Amino acid sequence: MSRIVIINGANAASSRVNAVQQYIEKTIDEVASIEVFKLPAEDLLTANFNSEHIQAVNRIVEKAEAVVVLTPVYKAAYSGILKTYLDLLPQKGLEHKTILPIAVGGSLAHLLSLEYALKPVLSVLGATTILQPVYLIDKQIERLENGSFSIAEEAIERIDKELNRLAPVVSNPV
Predict the structure, then answer these.
(1) N or C: which end of the chain has fewer CB within 10 A?
(2) Residues 6+ apart with CB under 8 A from 167
(3) E strands within the chain?
(4) Using the 8-state DSSP alphabet, how is residue 11 labeled?
(5) Residues 116-134: pLDDT tens digits?
(6) Number of C-alpha atoms within 13 angstroms, CB side, residue 20?
(7) How many other C-beta atoms can be found within 10 angstroms of the C-beta atom of residue 130?
(8) What count of other Cβ atoms lies within 10 Å of the Cβ of residue 30?
């Protein structure tokens, strides 16, 4: 069982948000990842709570002690695909979990989108322990010629600082 789960709200495999997911997967042992864009689109768009795929990923979230929510920021809000998945979580699906929101946006102009758009939804889902959000800008995640990414050291330091705050939450054995 993974004690930490990443919910990746990117729209495509080419998103800079995926660089953050890959970094966290390399940094933390036994982390599970849910890439929302890989879930069946029809299940997301029709809010199919009975979908085997949706129920399977919801069980992963249910068993986790901490959740990292990754999202790109578009037009001052988190991604629509992330919202479609969050709507399929049970009413208190994030209760008793520590949440770390991380977003990647084009500029600092959308920094507060995490406070005013994402955090209220996480709270409605039962989250009471929401760590300091990490907001990164596109230029901190360079797309390399081979298709991989390079994350700026300053961004890595900020991610690591919040990941270290997750460590005590999941360090005690079940």
Answers:
(1) C
(2) none
(3) 4-8, 31-35, 66-74, 77-78, 98-105, 129-130, 134-137, 141-143, 149-151
(4) S
(5) 899 999 999 999 899 999 9
(6) 35
(7) 20
(8) 9
Note the residue count of the chain: 174
Report long-range pairs for 142-149 (Cβ below 8 Å, ≥24 apart).
143/16, 147/14, 148/19, 149/16, 149/18, 149/19, 149/22
17 versus 1: the higher-pLDDT residue is: 17
Tokens of 93: 């699906």
pLDDT at 47 over 70: yes
Work out the mean pLDDT of the chain and round it to a whole number: 93
30 contacts 63 by C-beta, under 8 angstroms: no
Give me the pLDDT at residue 136, please: 97
Condensed to tens digits (0 to 9), the pLDDT of residues 81-94 reads 999 999 999 999 99
**Which residue in this structure is represented by tokens 């770390």?**
100
> pTM value?
0.94
